[in-house]
C-alpha cells in the first residue's frame, strides 16, 4: 500500500518535470524560463563578485608561489619571444602596407578595429557538463546576447545570457558551441565544435581532404557571430573511419580555458569581418 | 509537511556554495555536486517521498542557474531523492565508508540519468569519454566531499537522529 503510494507520488513529481521540459522545448515556456534565469543571475551577481574578491587574492598568491620556481625559465622564454615578436612586427608592418595597396586596388573599405569592452571572469559553471564563464559586465555596460568574446590568444566563446551587472559566456569547448573556421594552409572551411569533457573537434571535413597535424585554424567569419581572423586552435590528431563520410579531427584550443581572468567582449565587429551567412552558430 | 524549512534553508545554502565556490575547486571537468549530496542525504534520512520532493526543489534551483532544458535537473534530482529514500537507513550507522559508497553510486546514477535525458533531447554525446572524464571523477569527488557533509547535514535536518544515522 505504502509502496504504491510512493510510486504514485514519484509519478506525479516526474510528470511535473516532464511538463516543464515540454513547455521549455515547445517554446511556450522559453521566455518565462529566460526571465527567471536572468532574475536569478541578477540576484546572485553580488555573490559572484563577493566570492571573486575573496578567492582571487588566494588564487593569485598560490599562482605566484607555484610559478616562482619557473620564473627564470619564463624570463628566458619571454626574451626569446620578444626578439621574435620584434621581427614579426617589422614583417607585419611591411605586409600591412602591401595589404593597404591591394585593398585600394580591389575597392574594399579599410577598417582596422573593433569596439570592445574589457571584462573580468568572476565565476564559472557549477556543472561538470557545461563550460560557462560568468563575467562582471552586463546589459548596463552594453552587452548583448551572442556578442563574441576573445583574448589575444584567440576566441573564447560568445555571450549566452545577459544580466544587469553580469553575463554568462558560453565557451568554445562547450558541446553546444560551434564556430566557422578556415584552415590557414589550405583555406578549407569547416566547423569547430566543443567535445565531451573539454577540447575541440573540427567537423564537416570530407574524407581525403588535405588536413594535417599542426594545421592552424582561424575564424572564417561565417555565422555572423565571430569576426574573421581570430585564432581558434591547431590540429593535433587526424583520423578516418571507413564507414564515415567525414574525417575525425581533434583540435588543441589556442586559448587556455582554465586560466582565463581578463577578456574582451566585441560589441561591434566591423562589416568586413562578417562576410557570410549563418552556419556556425548552433 | 513533506519537507521542512531547515531542509529548504540547507538546500539554498548548498546551491549558493555550488554556484560560487565549487567551480573554483573543480579538478578538470570534475566537480562535486552539493545539491546531490543534500538531496540524497535527505532521502537517506527521511524516505522516498520527502527525498523525491526535496529532489524536485533542488533540481528546480539548479535548472534556474544552468543552461539547457529546463526540467532536466528537476527530473534527475527527483529520481535521485526518491531512490536514496529507498535505501535502508540502518546501513549508515555502522561505518563511514558505506554512506560514501552509497553516495558514489547515487552520483553515478544521477549523471547517467543526465546523459540519458540530454540524449533523449537530441544531443550527441560521447558516452565513454563522458563516463571516464566526467561521470566517474565527479562521482568520486562528490562522495569524498559528502564524507565531510553527512554529519552536519544530519545535525541540521534532524537533531534526534544526530548520533544514530551517520557516524
Number of helices of chain A: 3
The helix-strand sequence of chain A is HHHEEEEEEEEEEEE
Total helical elements of chain B: 6
Radius of gyration of chain A: 23 Å
**Fourth-level CATH superfamily of the largest domain in chain A:** Rod shape-determining protein MreC, domain 1
Instruction: Give the spatial strand order of the biggest sheet of chain A.
Output: 1-2-5-4-3-12
Shape of chain A: globular
Mean pLDDT of chain B: 86
Number of domains of chain A: 3
Oligomeric category? heterodimer
Secondary structural class of chain B: mainly alpha
Q: What fold name stands as the CATH topology of the largest domain in chain A?
A: Thrombin, subunit H
**Proper CATH architecture of the largest domain in chain A:** Beta Barrel
Number of strand segments of chain B? 0
Low-confidence stretches of chain B: none
> Which chain pair has the greatest contact?
A-B, 47 and 49 residues
Q: Characterize the biggest β-sheet of chain A.
A: 6 strands, antiparallel, barrel
Q: Could you describe the largest sheet of chain B, including whether it forms a barrel?
A: none
CATH level-1 class of chain B: Mainly Alpha
Strand content of chain B: under 5%
Kindly name the structural category of chain A.
alpha+beta
Model description:
The complex is a heterodimer of chains A (282) and B (167). Chain A is 35% helix and 27% strand. With 282 residues, chain A is of the alpha+beta class. Chain A has three domains: 2-65; 71-106; 114-282, Thrombin, subunit H, CATH 2.40.10.340. In chain A, the strands form two sheets. Chain A has a six-stranded antiparallel β-barrel. By secondary structure, chain B is mainly alpha-helical. In chain B, 70% of the residues lie in helices and 0% in strands. Chains A and B meet through helix 1 and helix 2 of A and helix 1, helix 3, helix 4 and helix 6 of B.
Amino acid at each position: 500500500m505504502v509502496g504504491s503510494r510512493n510510486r504514485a507520488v514519484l509519478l506525479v513529481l516526474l510528470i511535473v518535470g516532464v511538463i516543464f521540459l515540454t513547455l521549455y522545448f515547445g517554446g511556450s515556456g522559453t521566455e518565462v524560463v529566460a526571465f527567471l534565469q536572468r532574475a536569478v543571475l541578477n540576484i546572485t551577481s553580488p555573490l559572484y563578485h563577493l566570492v571573486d574578491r575573496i578567492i582571487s587574492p588566494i588564487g593569485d598568491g598560490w599562482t605566484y608561489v607555484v610559478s616562482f620556481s619557473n620564473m627564470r625559465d619564463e624570463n628566458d622564454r619571454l626574451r626569446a619571444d620578444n626578439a621574435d615578436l620584434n621581427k614579426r612586427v617589422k614583417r607585419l608592418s611591411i605586409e600591412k602596407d602591401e595589404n593597404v595597396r591591394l585593398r585600394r586596388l580591389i575597392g574594399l573599405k579599410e577598417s582596422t578595429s573593433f569596439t570592445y569592452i574589457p571584462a573580468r571572469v568572476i565565476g564559472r559553471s557549477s556543472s561538470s557538463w557545461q563550460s560557462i564563464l560568468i563575467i562582471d559586465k552586463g546589459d548596463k555596460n552594453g552587452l548583448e546576447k551572442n556578442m563574441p568574446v576573445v583574448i589575444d590568444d584567440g576566441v573564447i566563446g560568445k555571450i549566452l545570457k545577459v544580466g544587469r551587472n553580469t553575463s554568462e559566456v558560453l565557451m568554445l569547448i562547450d558541446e553546444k558551441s560551434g564556430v566557422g573556421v578556415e584552415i590557414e594552409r589550405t583555406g578549407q572551411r569547416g566547423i569547430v565544435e566543443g567535445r565531451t569533457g573539454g577540447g575541440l573537434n573540427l567537423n564537416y571535413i570530407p574524407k581525403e581532404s588535405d588536413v594535417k597535424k599542426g594545421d592552424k585554424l582561424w575564424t572564417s567569419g561565417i555565422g555572423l557571430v565571430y569576426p574573421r581572423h581570430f585564432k581558434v586552435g591547431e590540429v593535433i590528431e587526424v583520423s578516418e573511419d571507413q564507414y564515415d563520410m567525414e574525417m575525425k579531427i581533434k583540435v588543441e584550443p589556442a586559448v587556455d580555458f582554465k586560466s582565463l581572468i581578463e577578456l574582451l567582449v566585441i560589441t561591434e565587429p566591423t562589416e568586413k569581418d562578417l562576410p557570410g551567412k549563418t552556419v556556425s552558430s548552433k | 509537511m513533506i519537507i521542512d524549512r531547515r531542509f529548504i534553508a540547507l538546500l539554498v545554502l548548498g546551491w549558493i556554495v555550488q554556484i560560487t565556490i565549487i567551480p573554483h575547486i573543480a579538478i578538470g571537468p570534475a566537480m562535486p555536486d552539493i545539491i546531490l549530496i543534500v538531496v540524497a542525504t535527505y532521502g537517506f534520512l527521511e524516505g522516498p517521498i520527502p527525498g523525491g520532493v526535496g529532489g524536485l526543489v533542488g533540481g528546480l534551483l539548479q535548472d534556474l542557474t544552468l543552461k539547457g532544458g529546463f526540467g532536466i535537473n528537476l527530473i534527475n534530482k527527483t529520481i535521485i531523492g526518491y531512490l536514496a529514500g529507498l535505501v535502508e537507513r540502518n546501513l549508515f550507522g555502522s561505518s563511514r565508508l558505506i554512506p560514501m559508497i552509497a553516495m558514489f553510486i547515487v552520483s553515478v546514477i544521477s549523471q547517467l540519468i543526465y546523459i540519458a535525458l540530454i540524449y533523449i533531447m537530441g544531443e550527441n554525446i560521447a558516452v565513454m569519454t563522458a563516463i571516464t572524464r566526467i561521470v566517474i571523477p565527479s562521482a568520486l569527488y562528490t562522495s569524498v566531499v559528502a564524507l565531510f557533509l553527512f554529519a552536519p547535514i544530519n545535525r541540521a535536518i534532524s537533531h534526534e537522529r544526530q548520533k544514530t544515522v551517520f557516524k
